[in-house]
Structures are given as structure tokens and as C-alpha cells.
Design goal:
The protein has 449 residues and is of the alpha+beta class. 31% of the residues lie in helices and 27% in strands. The chain contains 16 helices and 19 strands. It has a 19-stranded mixed sheet, with helices on both faces.
Length: 449
């Protein structure tokens, strides 16, 4: 009996070792992703295999699927200098070489165990029998440097790769078929602002991260995400701030029009929420102009309920911002006459009876009350205020329904975002193959209890 027990134990140990070795082999191509990556997305290979639209958007087309092992995950990543990358497991390097010879702009060359190519003078490609790497877009002059970077990545050991980073461990723990973990600095600035809410003053976007699971159904991409930090002190402050956000009632869920780029929804007590806004540098930059004309901080203190910020433009000079908020006891209305008298030269505040307009040169901003709703927006007359609450072309109901009951949500108008050049050159560029034909993106913030 003892001998049999020893034999079973030996078999068990052998099986464990075999599983560990198999696990290492499964991840060996992932070590090509650099440890310095600021964002990493994992896409289940089955998702790619089932969609001919994902790989067809790559610079060398969907034929590359014949040479890849789509039983393994495909990874997209952003390098520290802002380039986008892709990493995939190679199944047939000979077939991959044939495909690259037809797709490459110049001749595929060999460097040791690696093959190097460029596509359209802007994408660097490197591969061996194990991994395929793509990096770009870069200028034609920068292609040699990009290819040298690919060789270093293909050569690097696990300690120099993303596998050694907590970012990868976090990514690996997300159960969605499409998942990502990113430093907030990898996001466009305006989209990054909500994820920085609650971060301590002095913390920058490289110290705060986002973990997200992605699902697409009926043309809507839903992203369930959480902001956090690998630095305990920063993470603690982020977690503390989450209690300020209350379940959204849905008062303004139908107020976003299809002409707007994105909108942020929450439910707050303004007195508690104001310190978070004041510590968020990106949002403060947007709101600073208002504070020079009116006492926006005092307006915010009157907020108690649902609040929504929507943006139709992205430049600092023209954010095209609209704000709607449920208010209680807005005592600041008694100060409007003082604001009128205190305007700087060249500026003015006009209006009465709950509707006022601030003007400075060619720019204008209207604000006021519609019942117990505060509104503030660029260039709206009193007769047009109703269109803010009931736009003629609101976002689809199946999109707006996802907002209600959450504690913070963002809705992104995909066509408008792509049209404004926001779906390339940053982490949002990673989503481009997946958001193809998606009508809207709903990003819901989840918080630890």
C-alpha cells in the first residue's frame, strides 16, 4: 500500500510539472510585450477567429490568420512612446513568411532567427517561429529604429517583459473574452479625467490605472471598468472617493444627443463631489473658464442628485460642454447681479428670470434654471433650453438604459469619436478593430465594496 501511495504521488508530481511547463509554453510568446507598456489588451483568439473584420483591419490583412495560432490569445499594447503594438502566437512561420512577402512594402529581411518587414512604410513587423510582433504607425525614417525595437522584444526574457509586471497579473485575472489594463496616461486627456477623480493631489496619470472587461452585444460595447493604482497610498485615496458616487436615477439618461462625442453621468451631493472636481486637473482646466465669470463652485454646492457633463468638442478653446444637474436650494441666484458687475473688461453677463448668458469676445455660455435643474451650455437661447432636456436625436434607448442604477457611467458616440480622430494613436486605437460597426460604447465604473 505504501509503495502504491508513493507511485501515485510521483505521478501527481509529474502531472503538476507537465502542467507548469505547458503553462510556460502557452505564455512564451507574450514575453515579447515590453514591461514598459502603458496599456495591454487581451483578445480571446476565438473572438478573432469568428470575426473576419478584426484581422482585416491590420495592415497586412486577414490572410495572416492562416499562419497564427488562434487557440491562443492575441494582445494589443501601447508602448511608452505612444506606438501601438500587436503580439500573436505563430503557428506556421513558413506560411507567415509567404504572406509577408506579398504584403511588405520592401523585401523581407533576416536578422539572426528573426524576420523583419515593413508595411506601407509605417508599420514595422517582426516574427520568428514563436511570436509575431507589429509596431506603429511610425514615419518611414523611424522604421529602422522600430524594427530594432522589435528584435529586442523578440529576444527579451520574461523578466524584461509584461509577464513580470503586476499589470499582466491584473489582466490575467479578468474573465472577459476581451480585457484590458491601462495606465490612465494612455487615454485621451478628456476621456481620462473621470478615471482620475479621487486621486490625491500630485498623483499623475501614470500612477492611476484602469482594468476593464469588454463585451459587445447588439451593436453596443459595454466596458465594465475599475480605476485603481498599484501604489497603495494612491489606491487608498481612489477607493475612499468612491463613496461620494451614488446610484444614478436616470434623470438625464435621455439628454445626450447623437451629435455629442461623449457624456459622463453620476449622482452626487455637490458639497462632497466638489473636492474631487477641484483635485482633477483635466476637469479643472475645462471648468476654469467658468469660474472666472461665475462662482461655479457655489453652483456645484447646490447640486443634489443626478448630474451629467456632455462634450461635443475636444479642443481646450472649444470643449462644447453642456452640464445638467438636479439642484436643491440654489442660493447662488442671489449673486448673479454681483457677477454682472464684476465682469472683466470685454466680458458681460446678461439676462434675467433664471436664464443668463455670459459673453467674452466671440464665445458665449448660457446658464440658468429650468425648475430644479441647473443647465449650463455653449450658446443656447432661452427658447432652446428644452432641447437640452429633450434633444431631437437622443442616443438609443438601449444605450441610455445601461446608465440607470450605476454609480458612474460614460457614453461614447463611436462615429463622432472616430470622426474627431480620437480612435487612433492612443489606447483607444486598440479598440478600433473591435468597435468597427459598434454604434455606441457604454463605460460603467465598478467599485470595490
Amino acid at each position: 500500500m505504501k509503495t502504491r501511495f508513493i507511485d501515485l504521488k510521483a505521478v501527481w508530481l509529474i502531472m503538476v510539472c507537465a502542467l507548469c511547463l505547458a503553462s510556460c509554453r502557452n505564455n512564451d510568446y507574450v514575453r515579447s510585450i515590453p514591461a514598459s507598456a502603458t496599456a495591454v489588451m487581451r483578445i480571446d483568439g476565438a473572438v478573432v477567429a469568428q470575426s473576419d473584420k478584426v484581422l482585416s483591419l491590420l495592415p497586412f490583412g486577414d490572410k495572416v490568420a492562416e499562419a497564427l495560432d488562434l487557440s491562443r490569445d492575441i494582445y494589443a499594447f501601447e508602448t511608452i512612446d505612444g506606438n501601438l503594438g500587436m503580439c500573436a502566437k505563430v503557428k506556421d512561420s513558413d506560411r507567415l513568411l509567404e504572406i509577408m512577402k506579398k504584403a511588405a512594402t520592401s523585401e523581407v529581411r533576416r536578422q539572426g532567427d528573426y524576420r523583419l518587414a515593413d508595411i506601407n512604410n509605417s508599420w514595422a513587423v517582426g516574427f520568428d517561429d514563436n511570436a509575431l510582433l507589429v509596431l506603429g504607425p511610425v514615419s518611414a525614417a523611424a522604421l529602422p529604429d522600430a524594427q530594432r525595437s522589435l528584435v529586442r522584444m523578440l529576444k527579451q526574457d520574461e523578466d524584461a517583459s509584461i509577464l513580470a509586471r503586476p499589470m499582466y497579473s491584473r489582466l490575467d485575472s479578468i474573465g472577459s473574452r476581451v480585457a484590458l489594463v491601462a495606465q490612465v496616461q494612455a487615454l485621451p486627456e478628456k476621456l481620462a479625467a473621470p478615471f482620475m477623480l479621487g486621486a490625491p493631489k500630485g498623483a499623475d496619470a501614470s500612477q492611476v490605472a484602469v482594468a476593464a472587461g469588454v463585451d459587445v452585444k447588439d451593436g453596443i460595447m459595454r466596458i465594465d471598468c475599475e480605476n485603481f493604482s498599484f501604489q497603495k497610498s494612491v489606491d487608498r485615496e481612489l477607493h475612499k472617493s468612491h463613496s461620494v458616487l451614488r446610484p444614478i436615477k436616470g434623470d438625464f439618461k435621455n439628454c445626450m444627443s447623437q451629435s455629442q462625442l461623449f457624456a459622463l453621468f453620476a449622482n452626487v451631493n455637490g458639497k462632497d463631489f466638489l473636492p474631487l472636481l477641484q483635485s482633477d486637473r483635466s476637469l479643472q482646466a475645462v471648468l476654469m473658464g467658468l469660474n472666472t465669470a461665475v462662482d461655479f463652485d457655489n453652483i456645484m454646492r447646490s447640486v443634489d442628485g443626478d448630474i451629467a457633463f456632455a462634450f461635443s468638442g475636444m479642443s481646450p478653446d472649444n470643449p462644447g460642454m453642456t452640464m445638467l444637474a438636479r439642484v436643491d436650494n440654489p442660493v447662488w441666484t442671489a449673486d448673479v447681479d454681483y457677477w454682472k458687475q464684476s465682469c472683466q473688461p470685454g466680458c458681460s453677463i446678461t439676462g434675467s428670470d433664471g436664464h443668463w448668458t455670459y459673453r467674452s469676445g466671440d464665445t458665449g455660455f448660457s446658464f440658468g434654471l429650468q425648475g430644479d435643474v441647473f443647465y449650463g451650455t455653449s450658446g443656447v437661447s432661452p427658447a432652446q433650453v428644452q432641447h437640452l432636456l429633450k434633444p431631437a436625436n437622443p442616443i438609443p434607448a438601449d444605450v441610455s438604459r445601461m446608465i440607470q442604477g450605476e454609480r458612474m457611467a460614460m457614453v461614447l458616440n463611436v462615429k463622432a469619436l472616430v470622426g474627431n480622430g480620437m480612435a487612433a494613436g492612443s489606447m483607444s486605437g486598440m479598440l478600433k478593430p473591435i468597435i468597427n460597426n459598434v454604434k455606441a460604447v457604454v463605460c460603467v465604473m465598478k467599485f470595490k465594496k
